[in-house]
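pinging the channel bc i need a second pair of eyes. not urgent but kinda urgent?? the chain im working w is below, pasted from the shared doc
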Amino acid sequence: MGGMPNPHRTDVPDLSTVWLRVFLEVARHGSFTVASRALGWTQSAVSRQISSLEGALGGAPLFDRLPRGVRLTEAGRALVPHAEAVTGALHTAARELAALRELAGGRLRFGAFPTADAALVPHALGVFGSRHPGVRVSREEGLTPALLDRLVEGRLDLAVVSTTSGAPLSSYELRHLLDESLYVAVPAGHPLAGGGPVRLGRLAGADWISGSPRPEGTLLDAALRQGFRPRIAHVVGEWTAKQGYVAAGLGVALVPALAAESVRPDIALLPVLDEGAPARAVYAATVRGRSLPPAAEAFVGALREAAGRIPRTPATLA
């Protein structure tokens, strides 16, 4: 037994946007003939489109056919603003989609771990901004685990992350940017200053400045790989402050290549010889299976260009 009709329901007619476009052309020119020339169609084709539209709307005529031209009926006049709204919205959507494809608009939301902001990210933003000034860019700074959470939540399009934290990366789409080298920062007057690359073991007895009281999950994992547990004398999180401690002779610190450009002049950098894996790898991470916006794809290219300016891993000993 069929259901009772819903008296409050109004069926929405299935209208072709082509019909609406033709309707507006005829309404604008007051003539099937002139509208057909404007559209590049035959007059009979225009007439068929209008007849189809009238049929879909219940059969009420939209135009009075006059000896010379046509004139909107009351139904036609009622339809005009709605047809304009529909076609206008579609034109706006088409422009916005084209702007996204052509990177003339849209947005880019990304995050980066703090050291990446020293050189990698600024260089990439400079390249990206000069090429795509119409894209709105928002940036967040955070540690890799927090950035990955923001990615999953959909609050970021991509994140510049590193392997230092030990955060699991296997479930993300990773675009490799660089394998980062390490340096030891020592006071400018240190006996090793001005020398060549060193193994960290030569500094096993030194006091160390680190952002964590434990070396695990930090750059000082490199010391553990070389067989000693560094003595962390001062826990200092902010990079500029770490330099101040080193310059004052209070200890030495590891400096990643990404931060090497911003070292103050009263500090010397010694390349680290590490026969193990690179100190850390840096990636542009996205959520696997999620479409990457065109702006984010272009920014990955800018990041790779910027990564090419970062010093490569120092040569290792044979």
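so Residues 47 and 59 are 14 Å apart (CA to CA). and Confidence is low (pLDDT under 50) at residues 1-5, 313-318. — does that match what u expected or am i reading it wrong
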